Each structure stands twice: as C-alpha cells, then as structure tokens.
Amino acid sequence: PEQAIVSKEKELIKKRIPITDTRRASRTFRTNAADATISKLAEWGTGYYKDVCTSGNFVFCSASTSGLDIIDISTPAAPVLVGNYNNNGRSISVVHIAGTYAFIDGNSELIILDISTPALPTFVGSCSTSGQTSDIHVVGNYAYIVDNTTGLQIIDISSPASPHTVGRENIDGNPQSVYISGSYAYVGTYS
Description:
By secondary structure, the chain is mostly beta strands. It is built from no helices and 17 strands.
C-alpha cells in the first residue's frame, strides 16, 4: 500500500470549502475576480450544511441529521433538490466525491454511496473509523480520514463494497483536515 508521511500544520488545508449559513440554507454566488464582486444567484436547502462538494451539475451537501442532500445546479439560478441519503437520522458532516462514489462520515464509520443516479444514492459499503470524522480525502484506491480524537486513518477502497483499514497514525492537536499531495498527507490541526 501507498505510504503517507504526515505533516502537522497549524493552518487548515482543504481541497473543498465548507459553507455554512445561519439561516439554514445554502446559496449560489457568481464571482468576478477582475473586480472582486460577488452576487447571489439562488438559495436552496433543507438543513444545516457543514460541507459541500460538486461533481458535474450536482452539489452534494452534508445536511447533519437530514443526511446527504443532492442538488441539481444545471441551472445555477434555480437549484433543485433531486436526492437525499438519510443515515437513519445520524448526523453526516463530511462529504467527498470521487467518480461515481460519495464518501461520507457515518458516526465512527466511512460510508460509501453509489451516486451514478443522483436521485437515488445507494449504500455500497462501510468501514469502522476511530472516531467522529473531521475530513475525508480520496486519492486512487485510498480514502484518507482524519478524526478529532486519534488522527489519520488510511482505508483501502479498491473494492468499494468491502473497504478496510490499511494504516493509522495517531496525531495530537485535534486533527481537522487532510489533503494528499504526492506521497505526503498534510493534516491541519486545531490546538
């Protein structure tokens, strides 16, 4: 299996930008970097979104105890909720998309969903994790998970129906985020 070297960082390094909104809805914005303007296009939502990922014309939102919301954004000014995965009322706070799979936290487990039909996300497999997941990053056949109690866990996802842990590294400092670049794992901590 691929080896990962862990580097503790004070700054959070994220590939995705979590979006939260106190009004319990998320928003679509248009940006113009040339003059630094931002304008609101639309709102959507059913719950508190802690993390969002995009893939094609869809936004995948971790909606806490409402599960994983899947929003069609093919018309950015008119987003439409097209699917949801409910984790039996258990909170989902982290989502990562890779290909036709969504990787979500499921209260001390990594859950893999088939999202090839976004309106009907389907459970594929799961693997126990050390604690409450703070971030997920997928590269190739591995999911890299950090939790706020023990640190970094590497899960082999080459067979999505039967993922299994292949490595673990304890990290002090309340790990919050992970990003993989080459053979390095960058872990953001909060201490």
